[in-house]
Amino acid sequence: MKTHAYLLDIKEICMDKHLTVDEIFEKLKKKYPKIWRSTVYRNVEEMKEIGVLTKLTGIQDKALYEVTKENHIHLIDTKNKRVMDLYMDSINIPWVPHNFNIEYMNVDIYGKFS
Ligand SMILES: [Zn+2]
User: Which terminus of the chain has fewer CB atoms gathered within 10 Å of its CB, N or C?
Assistant: First the structure.
């Protein structure tokens, strides 16, 4: 099997979503009925290694994966464990000094909608 054979499919599936490997597997299975779960696990892990996917742990019991993208904040609904991406212009983050150039940001905010 070719390395990264499903890279484009997985990238498309994970676009603007935060999914477990099992969820990625279920979606891939619709297109490739004979695909193995272990193949998907390997592909996802390889994509994480080369920086295409970002792994999020500690939100659900299983790790979530998303397509690596510009710095953003995660708003995590603790009721249904859904993850929303929030983008902020770094210049407009009020608590960051204006002369501090953000290179990397990893912010998770947990809560519930009322
Ligand atoms: Zn995200």
Answer: C
